[in-house]
Amino acid sequence: MTDLLIHDAIVVTMNQENQILKNGSVRVTDGVISSVRATEPGDRDSAAGRVIDASEKVVMPGLIDAHRHTDFALVQGLFSELGGGELLKEAFALYHTAEPTLGDSFFEAAWRLACLRQLTHGVTTVNAMDFTPGLGAEAIGESGLRAVIGSELADVLDPASADDQLATARRFIETYHDTYEGRVTASIAPGGEAGCSRRLWEGVAELRADYPDLRLHTHLYDSAEADTMAAGSGADDPLDLLDRYGLLDERTLLTHLLHADRSDARRIADAGAHVLHCPTVYSYFRAGERTWFPLPALQEFGANVAIGLDDPFWFDSWDLVREAKHARLLSNFEYGAQQWSSYDLLRMLTIDAARALGLNDRVGSLEPGKRADVVVVDIDTPRHRPYSNLPSVLTNTVTAGDIETVIVDGEVLMEERTVESMDVESVRTAAARERERLQARTGWETSLAGSTPPDESILRRVSARPLLRALRQYGRGIVHQHGW
C-alpha cells in the first residue's frame, strides 16, 4: 500500500531530462519513491496512508546545504555589525569563554536550533564539519533530517594534538557512520592547508585508506597565502598537498577556492573533485578586498559545483534559495551576465549537491527508486502569479518562507508550515536559555537595536595560552573561512 501520495502538483523532477510535470503525482512506499507520473482522477480519492493535495504548488527534491558549520548557531546577531578584524577578535574571546564554561548543553541547543531552522527552510540534507559532531549526529538523527558530518581537524597551533584529534575522528566514524536508518553518514574533514600539520595530513590519509567510501571535506585556497601554507607541509601548493597524500579524487569536496586560478580549476576538474561555493559570507564581511572564485574556468573544464551557507549565523540568513540567488548575482557582477541559468542553480541545490556528497543514487531528484526527500513550495500567491519560466521563479522570487511541507525518507517532518518531527517550543526554550547563559558569561549586551561586545579588553579576558587553544579548537573555523 502507498504510504504517501502527493497529487495535482507541478513536479520539478531534476532528473536527467530536466522533466517538469504540469499536473503530477508522487507516490512513496517504505520511504522510497515508487512512481512519478501525471495525476489520475483516482489519486484525489486515494486510500494512501497520507495524501497531500498540492494543487498549483511545486513539488521538488529537498534542498541540500553543501557546506556548513553549526557549533555556534546561538551567536546569531552578535557579530552582524562588526568588521572582519573586530569579528575575529571577539569570536576568539567568545569561543574561549563558551567552550569551558557552557558545556554540552550550549552546543546541544545550538544543533537543535540549527536543525529546526534547516527544516523550516526546506533543507533536507546538510554537509557539516564541526567540533561537536557527535552532538550534531544525534540532533540531525532525532529531527528526521539527513546529513554528512565530519569531525573538523585543525592542529597547526598545537601539533601535539594531532593524534588525539585523529582518534576522535575515528571514534566518530565508528560510532555514527550510517546510523539513523542511513540518514547520518560520516566524512573526513581536515580544516585545510592553513590549519593542518604534516602529521595531521598523514593521519587523514590513513583514515582515508581505512574508510575509502567516505568523502574528504576540506577548505582550499581561501587565502592569498595558500601556496605558502601548503609549503609548510612539503607541497608546492594546496592541490599538490592533497595529491601527495592520495586525497584528490572524485570523493573530495573543496570549499571556497577564492584564490584558485585557471590551472587549479583544470586540475580539480581532471581529478573529478567537487567544489562547494559559499558566496554570501565573503561578500558580507570583506566585499571588494579579494578575488572571486574561478567560476568561468570551473565551468569550462566541467567541475561539479554545489552551494553551501557556511556559517549562516554570521550574516543572519538560513535561506539556501537566497544563497543561490546571491551566487548568481555576485558571479554576474564579477564575470558578466548569465554565468548560471536558473536551472543550473536548481541543480546545484539538489542533484549536483547530492552528487558531490555521493548521495545521488539516493536523493537529489524525484525518480522511482530514490529515497523520498521532498519539499512542497507554495507559489500560488500574488507574490508569484502570474508567471512563466518556473525555474526563474524558484530561484529569483521564491524564498524559504514559501516552503510549506518537508518530507525526508518518506516521513512528513513539516506540513503546511507546522513542524511535526521536533518539539519547537523545547528547542526555542533551550536556545533562549543557553543564549542568556552565553551573554551572562561573556558580557555581551543585546537589545532590539543591536549587540555590543564587552567593554573589557580582549587581552584581559583571554590570556595568550587559552587564546591559542581557542584558535586551534574554534577560531580556526573563522580564519579558514574568511582568510584573516
TrEMBL record:
Pfam families, sorted: Amidohydro_1
Single Gene Ontology MF annotation: hydrolase activity, acting on carbon-nitrogen (but not peptide) bonds
Domain Amidohydrolase-related, first and last residues per copy: 58-412
SUPFAM superfamilies reported in the protein's UniProt record: Composite domain of metallo-dependent hydrolases, Metallo-dependent hydrolases
Keywords: Hydrolase
InterPro entries for this protein: Amidohydro-rel (IPR006680), Metal-dep_hydrolase_composite (IPR011059), Metal_Hydrolase (IPR032466), MTA/SAH_deaminase (IPR050287)
Keyword field contains Hydrolase: yes
Coiled coil stretches, renumbered: none
Superkingdom of this protein's organism: Archaea
Keyword check for Hydrolase: yes
PANTHER family named in the record: AMIDOHYDROLASE-RELATED DOMAIN-CONTAINING PROTEIN, AMINOHYDROLASE SSNA-RELATED
Protein name: 5-methylthioadenosine/S-adenosylhomocysteine deaminase
